[in-house]
Amino acid sequence: MTEDVKPTRKNLMEIEDRIEFSERGHDTLEQKRDGLIMEFMDILDQAQEVRSGLEENYQEAQRAIDMARAMEGDVAVRGAASALKEHPEITSQSNNIMGVVVPQIESTKVRKDLQERGYGVLGTSARIDEAADAYEQLLESIILAAEIETAMKKLLDEIEKTKRRVNALEFKLLPELRENQEYIEQKLEEQEREEIFRMKKIKDKKEAAEAEQADTAAAETPADEGEGEGEETVTADD
User: Fold this and answer.
1) Is there a domain that residue 215 lies in?
2) DSSP alpha helices (H): ranges in the chain?
């Protein structure tokens, strides 16, 4: 509120500094927002490809497991699945995208050869091998999708946060500061005009007083001179 601001030159300088600082911050945040949007769009393109691949891999895994169950029976499929001894390992590291920390997921032991799967090669058919291959590929797609989806969510949250900060500066703080700046400038101009008017009045009064004194002095000077001449005449007659 402009009414709460004291119209002093010190406050004006402080507000001008705040405006300059806020404008720089606004420009920086706009650049960050635009950069984050570009990064988000790049990841969005990747996400569409990953989602498409995930859907295809899911359909293929479902088809393969259905075929294995039909050919080998549900008990054989469950037995092959439970024979697995080494499970996939997943680790997560941090990746920085324009100040946003997003996870970078790495997986090991997802793809396995026939021996690592644990079930007997002679006791199973190629249908179970195909199902295992399909589900290993599906798991890789799920891990990649999780990484990209998490990165997208974090980027989107940061974009929204940055947009709110940009809007707060652009539509709230900066207009208020500029309004206060204009208010103080107007008040200072009014004070300056009043001071000029006051000084002019003082000057006019001083000049008027000096002029009056000069007039009084001028009026008194001839009378004194006349009295002096009269005294000299009387002396001469004597």
Assistant:
1) no
2) 9-72, 74-82, 114-117, 126-168, 174-237
Written as one letter, the residue type at 43 is I
Mean pLDDT over the full length of the chain: 86
25-34 pLDDT, tens per residue? 999 999 999 9
Q: What is the pTM of this model?
A: 0.71
* 76 touches 167 (CB < 8 A): no
Question: In which domain, by residue range, is 66 found?
Answer: 2-182
**Half-sphere exposure (CA, 13 Å, Cβ side) for 194?**
6
- Joined together, the tokens standing for residue 192 give 């300056």
| Rounded Cα–Cα distance for residues 67 and 64 (Å) | 5
Which CATH number fits the domain that encloses residue 61?
A: 1.10.287.3240
pLDDT of residue 236: 42
What residues have CB less than 8 Å from 191, skipping those under 6 apart? 7
- Greater pLDDT, 98 or 58: 58
Number of domains comprising the chain: 1
3-class secondary-structure state, position 104: strand
- Residue 6 has phi, psi (to 5 degrees) of -80, 125
